Amino acid sequence: MMKIHTYNSLESTNSEALRLASTEEPSPFAVFTHQQRAGRGRNQRHWESAAGNLTATWVFPTKISPTMAQLGVLVGVSACDLLRDLGCPAQLKWPNDLLVQNNKLGGMLSEYTPTPTGTGALAVGLGMNLHPVKDLDQPATSVQEWASSVPEALDLMHRLTERIDSAWTRYRQEGGTFLIHAWRERSATLGQSVRIERTNDTVTGKAVDIAPDFSLLLHTESGLVSIHVGDCIHLRAAAL
């Protein structure tokens, strides 16, 4: 199984993972911390993570494209399935969130770094609420609110890393096609009316599928549009 670097406290598991990968640490490997002091999400948003919640990063040897989206889905599908085994009816929101009944349970962030070997490494970070959280800018939930018992964060880390390691082996053998099917089956986004907010524009439409390159396909007034990056807002959920 992947080696897990364990810390009592870090500013960011992604930052530490990228630091290790940029030296001579062979990948794949994982980084776990009991407390994360300065986590970050997409677009440099601050990610709050109190002690006792899951904060971790998995590192894979890879080129930056197209595997960034694929390996983010690999981690997300693995996490979603483990949560369902615990009693949480988790789903995946495009591009990088874990939801339970439209409430955010966790989020992911993928980042790339060159390595001394020239292969490159992709770090996929995950923050997951094991216990109730407060003062967030969106509806949130936790494993504690759904599961009959909540594992310790490090125990959950080992169980999740086993699943990710198995999925990584399958990915290297088969490619990413199985991840597309897995994402469709676990998607909270497909069938939703959504608004995608990008740097320079906004696109509104109905999410109808995920493409082979892992972009989101929207049916809009002007036709089918492929979305590779952006903030996704579920309009039906927002209206409830």
Task: Annotate the secondary structure layout.
Blueprint: E1 3-7, H1 13-21, E2 29-33, E3 39-40, E4 46-47, E5 54-61, H2 67-85, E6 91-93, E7 97-100, E8 103-113, E9 121-128, H3 153-174, H4 177-186, E10 193-197, E11 202-210, E12 216-220, E13 223-227, E14 231-234, H5 235-239
Parallel strand pairs: 1-2
Antiparallel strand pairs: 2-5, 3-4, 5-9, 6-7, 7-8, 8-9, 10-11, 10-14, 11-12, 12-13
Helix pairs in contact: 2-3, 2-4
Task: Describe, in plain words, how this protein is organized in 3D.
With 240 residues, the protein is an alpha+beta fold. Helix content is 27%, strand content 32%. It contains 5 helices and 14 strands. The chain has a 7-stranded mixed sheet, sandwiched between helices. Strand 3 (39-40) and strand 4 form a beta hairpin. Helix 2 (67-85) packs across helix 4. The longest helix has 22 residues, at 153-174. 42% of the residues are buried.
Principal-axes shape call: globular
- How many β-strand runs? 14
Largest sheet: 7 strands, mixed
Strand content: 25-35%
Distance between the termini: 43 Å
Note poorly predicted spans.
none
Helical fraction:
25-40%
Class by SSE composition:
alpha+beta
Q: Whole-number average pLDDT? A: 90
Rg on CA atoms, Å: 17 Å
Number of distinct helices? 5
How do the strands of the widest beta sheet line up side by side?
1-2-5-9-8-7-6
